[in-house]
Amino acid sequence: MDYIKRIRALREDNDYKQREVAALLNVGQRTYADYEYGKTRIPLDSMIVLAKFYGVDMNYICGVSNVKNSFPEK
């Protein structure tokens, strides 16, 4: 599963609307939808925000691992 499917699955599993997550990332709903449909690549800094928001590490959100480890604390 790639990051496109992961960010959508995480959003849906947590019962968020695209507009809510878009607001978190300071982008429009259409831009966020383009991320989920793979029309536009999501910036790395936005991926980090999503990983923190959903409490999962970057390996999971990027599809490197299927284990939902917690986002690391500093």
TrEMBL record:
Transmembrane feature ranges: none
Domain named HTH cro/C1-type: residues: 7-61
InterPro entries in the cross-refs: Cro/C1-type_HTH, Lambda_DNA-bd_dom_sf
SMART domains documented for this protein: HTH_XRE
Domain of life: Bacteria
GO molecular function, one term: DNA binding
Name by which UniProt lists this protein: HTH cro/C1-type domain-containing protein
Species per Swiss-Prot/TrEMBL record: Enterococcus moraviensis ATCC BAA-383
Organism ancestry: Bacteria, Bacillati, Bacillota, Bacilli, Lactobacillales
